[in-house]
């Protein structure tokens, strides 16, 4: 059994011996993306399980160890991890936990300390916690984000964004229920097989895979009915995670809407861009700024490959990060970067400009940054775009699902009334 090793500050380290013996538990935020991230980590020699649990017990477990005024995603992630150790059939002395740290001013960078405190309260202080970050915040002998691994994870993110984008545009219209999910499973398996064979890990191969994925999704028989498109934005965890947003996308589908969810890529570029902004505003090493520019440029080039592939098909393509950054000028400055910062407002602007004025803005109750750049910007957007139809939905341990869904139903009713009104105007114009 691996010996427990601590650093000079008393932090329990994840050692090289643990890499051989321990299973690392990873919270799930994006099922498709994280499934590929998991496989890429397995290929690097790590034993990783992704947690797909979604039940009330996770919230109850989180409430035992995290104050209910603390950020809701922290409560969910910590609750899910501790629930898995207690009830997932694992040997608690042979598991480690993954948690991300962005290094920004958001409370998310402190989840790791809350998690360690929770483990101590639960009598699990011997479980190592691994920080996944690009800021050098914490290091462990048994885990490192090498440049080759980072490059592979970027490709996994791009594939995830493309697959989810295509699936969201097909699923609401499929003639045979389940066709889209079967195609999604097929391509996830195919991509994982290619990872194992060492393929799909170059931009040239990625572009070829993009074309093949989209060609396959175009073969799915669909109806041509018109449905209300609804954008989903907000704090990154509750925006993406079915556990965090009470299965919001499934609910929108059940109400006859097409969910439009901006991908993970813009968020990652935003986080790298913020390091560049720090140097511009506060000063710092030009080398750091240059590295960030090169890193950001590489991901932006991959994003443009994805956009180009989508534009060759019948599918709608998202805009570029650069284009979104231009849209937000005059609304928020680059220094507004706590939480999702100006990116959240930028995503709403991009949705409105791309013909999706109906938006659900998801946010953890009490998340001050997102209340400012989300709910706080709705009036300004409504003034500039009178047809925008945005509802802000709070998520926390005490929020009732029925109340959240009723507010979304009201937004959908407004959306359908506006669509009918616009259709009437078009018919009148055609008669004239």
Which helices and strands appear, and what pairs or packs with what?
Blueprint: H1 16-21, E1 23-27, H2 31-43, E2 47-51, H3 56-65, H4 72-87, E3 95-100, H5 111-121, E4 129-132, H6 147-170, H7 179-196, H8 203-218, E5 228-234, H9 236-240, H10 248-254, E6 257-260, H11 265-282, H12 286-311, H13 321-327, H14 341-353, E7 358-364, H15 368-373, H16 378-384, E8 389-395, H17 401-431
Parallel strand pairs: 1-2, 1-3, 3-4, 5-6, 5-7, 7-8
Short recap of the structure:
This protein has 432 residues and is of the alpha/beta class.
Structure overview:
This protein is α/β, with parallel strands linked by helices and 432 residues long. Among the domains are: 16-144, Rossmann fold, CATH 3.40.50; 228-263 and 320-432, Rossmann fold, CATH 3.40.50. It has 17 helices and eight strands. It has helices spanning 16-21, 31-43, 56-65, 72-87, 111-121, 147-170, 179-196, 203-218, 236-240, 248-254, 265-282, 286-311, 321-327, 341-353, 368-373, 378-384, 401-431; strands spanning 23-27, 47-51, 95-100, 129-132, 228-234, 257-260, 358-364, 389-395. The chain has a four-stranded parallel β-sheet, sandwiched between helices. A four-stranded parallel β-sheet has the order 6-5-7-8, sandwiched between helices. Helix 5 links the parallel strand 3 and strand 4. Helix 2 runs antiparallel to helix 6 and helix 6 runs antiparallel to helix 7 (179-196). The longest helix has 31 residues, at 401-431. The radius of gyration is 22 Å and the shape is globular. It starts with 15 loop residues before the first helix and ends with a helix. The model has no long low-confidence stretch (mean pLDDT 91).
């Amino acid at each position: 059994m691996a010996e427990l090793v601590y650093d000079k500050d008393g932090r329990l380290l994840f050692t090289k011996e643990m890499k051989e013996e321990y299973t690392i538990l990873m919270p799930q935020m994006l099922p498709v993306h994280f499934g590929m991230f998991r496989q890429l980590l397995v290929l690097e020699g790590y034993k990783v399980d992704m947690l797909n649990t979604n039940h009330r017990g996770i919230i109850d477990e989180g409430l035992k160890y995290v104050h209910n005024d603390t950020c809701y995603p922290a409560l969910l992630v910590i609750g899910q991890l501790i629930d898995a150790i207690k009830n997932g059939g694992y040997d608690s002395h042979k598991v480690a936990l993954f948690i991300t740290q962005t290094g920004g001013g958001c409370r998310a960078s402190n989840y790791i300390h809350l998690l360690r405190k929770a483990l101590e309260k639960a009598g699990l202080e011997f479980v190592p916690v691994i920080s996944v970050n690009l800021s050098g915040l914490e290091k462990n002998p048994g885990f490192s984000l090498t440049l080759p691994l980072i490059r592979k994870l970027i490709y996994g993110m791009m594939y995830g964004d493309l697959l989810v984008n295509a699936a969201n545009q097909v699923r609401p219209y499929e003639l045979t229920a389940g066709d889209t999910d079967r195609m999604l499973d097929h391509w996830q398996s195919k991509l994982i097989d290619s990872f194992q064979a060492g393929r799909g890990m170059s931009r040239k191969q990625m572009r070829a895979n993009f074309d093949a994925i989209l060609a396959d999704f175009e073969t799915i028989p669909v109806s041509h009915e018109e449905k209300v498109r609804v954008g989903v934005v907000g704090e990154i965890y509750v925006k993406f995670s079915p556990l965090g947003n009470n299965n919001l996308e499934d609910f929108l589908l059940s109400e006859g809407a097409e969910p439009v969810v901006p991908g993970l890529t813009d968020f990652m570029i935003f986080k790298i861009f913020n390091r560049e902004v720090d140097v511009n505003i506060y000063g710092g090493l030009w080398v750091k700024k240059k590295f960030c520019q090169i890193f950001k440029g590489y991901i932006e080039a991959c994003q443009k490959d994805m956009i180009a592939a989508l534009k060759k098909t019948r599918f709608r393509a998202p805009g570029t990060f650069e284009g979104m950054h231009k849209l937000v000028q005059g609304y928020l400055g680059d220094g507004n970067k706590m939480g999702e910062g100006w990116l959240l407002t930028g995503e709403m602007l991009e949705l409105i400009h791309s013909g999706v004025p109906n938006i659900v803005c998801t946010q953890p109750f009490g998340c001050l940054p997102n209340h400012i750049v989300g709910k706080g910007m709705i009036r300004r957007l409504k003034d500039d775009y009178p047809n925008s139809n945005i509802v802000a939905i709070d998520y926390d341990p005490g929020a009732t699902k029925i109340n959240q869904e009723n507010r979304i139903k009201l937004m959908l009713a407004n959306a359908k009334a506006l669509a009918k009104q616009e259709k009437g105007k078009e018919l009148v114009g055609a008669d004239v």
